[in-house]
Amino acid sequence: MLVALVPSGAGGLLRPLADDGTPAGPERFVPDLAGAVAEVESRDRPRWLWASTAEIYPRLVQRGVRVERCHDLELAEALLLGAEGAWGQPRTIAAATARLAGLPVPPDPPARAAEPPGLSQDSLFDAFDAPAVPLDDLLAVYQAQRRRIEALPELPSAHPLAPRAGAMRTLVAAESAGALVAVEMGLAGLPWRADVHDALLRELLGPPSPVGGPPARLAELGVRLNEALGQRVHADSPAELLRAFARAGIMLRSTRKWELEHVDHPAVPILLEYKELYRLWTAHGWSWLDQWVTGGRFRAEYIPGGVVSGRWATRGGGALQIPKIVRRAVVADPGWALVVADAGQLEPRVLAAVAGDRRLARAGAAGDLYAALATEAFDGDRAKAKIAMLGAMYGQTGGNAAPALAALRRFYPTAWDLVEEAARTGESGGLVRTWLGRTCPPASVSWREGFDEPGAEVESRGGAKGRARGRFTRNFVIQGTAAEWALVLLARLRAALAGRRAELVFFQHDEVIVHCPQEEAQEVAAAVHAAGDEARRLLFGDTEVRFPLDVTIVGRYSDAK
DNA sequence: GAGTTGTGCGCC
DNA sequence: AAAGGGCGCACAACTC
Predict the structure, then answer these.
(1) Mean pLDDT to the nearest integer, A422-433
(2) A234 touches strand B (CB under 7 A)
(3) Does an H or E element contain A313, and which?
(4) Structure confidence by residue, pLDDT tens digits, A500-535
(5) Residues of the domain holding A416
(6) Nucleotide nearest to A234 in CA–C1' terms
(7) 3-state secondary structure of A5
(8) Is there contact between A237 and strand B, defined as CB under 7 Å from any strand atom?
């Protein structure tokens, strides 16, 4: 059963639908949207049909209302447009409606900027404006999406077996479920102890400057850097540093850490320490704390499908780049625990499952895939096995990877062919898809390395740009399919946790954190393992490959792993 | 002064 | 000759 929902003022319009999207009852206006949704949800557990989970669902969750399932029309629209060769076209209901009618298509509204918590809290309680879209349009777009899924064209895909439509239905459902998780997780926030964070900063940086300048330890390093170089430099300016080193007779191409590490000069260790602390101060210092942590929680906004590969992005606070050192401040509430789960070696396992390479799949059944590879094909050299796998997935061909890659190619030709084929497709201007059918952007709309120049599609066939494109499509299949596995895990885990006090509080590509009462922690850990198994079965059926999760129950994030 | 690009580095 | 994918963010340096 489906129920279509369009917000309007503080209330909204609801209409029950049959599974194919045709009306199964009258439309009704409800003055209290959250209350009405709660009532229908507990009675019928329908799949909610709405334009955008990110726009609508926060208002419900803020009022304590959660739903089990939805169909997010905008996310589905984006997936379908990609599959139909119209990647990046506007995805709103208004745009989709205009396309159906053959009318000019309005562009999507620009993305909102990240809003620190506090500034935006009130607006979450604001009523909606007048109904943004007619409910009939919602129905028409949904019905059309169902037809379009059934009529999907054949495109290069990693998935040799599942029917296109079946895979896409799974993908749309998973993407929509992910959108529910994203809203709930963003509002829950990651438990964050500002006092612990502050103590950490003082320990590493010294006391903050009362006038807003660099903290004591950083200022001191700046002085020592000047002394070591024999001149005054602005340590944050790469250009100045290059000139200063040049005067000392050291020619550098850049001031990157890995380049400096090979330079023998007394200023280098000072500069490296300065860079590390400077970064901590600017990116995760006191102003970050003031801006993003409120009420003991770091609240990020998660954006499902925000990365073209299907990975999530975040807005605000750099939630996917929390430095290891700062994770000390992520502490469970008293009496609660953090269940931290990490899928180890996810991408090579995905390659093993996707390629259907029997030999690689056997290695993927092991707890340590690289070690298994090493035993079979790399004379026990685990490091070499890892270089080979990473090189194959990322497109590295030179340097010390070459001999390792040769061994990989010889021992695992089926997997090798899969990534090579993806790369060739990209280099020649073609499109690739993930296992469930997410399509990569065409070369003409890629925003990297000048793909968006006129004629870039032709230019990209060969030359450095073409090879860059090949590396992108090669990796897209693996990264995107890994994102799908993680998305399904997240959806299954959410379902398993429903009704408990446990809350999903963090998700980062292949890692998830649940905050729960200590007495629930063991069951939550079991639920995470079960969700991983379900994700494997749903995507890959009876594959031999395993996707082991490293699950730890800790009081603070930094104690995991 | 505002906006854009480049650099560098954090995470996966 | 060498050639690793995806991001977000902050700052410097640049353009207009």
Answers:
(1) 89
(2) no
(3) strand A313-315
(4) 999 999 999 999 999 999 999 999 999 999 999 999
(5) 347-480
(6) C12
(7) strand
(8) no
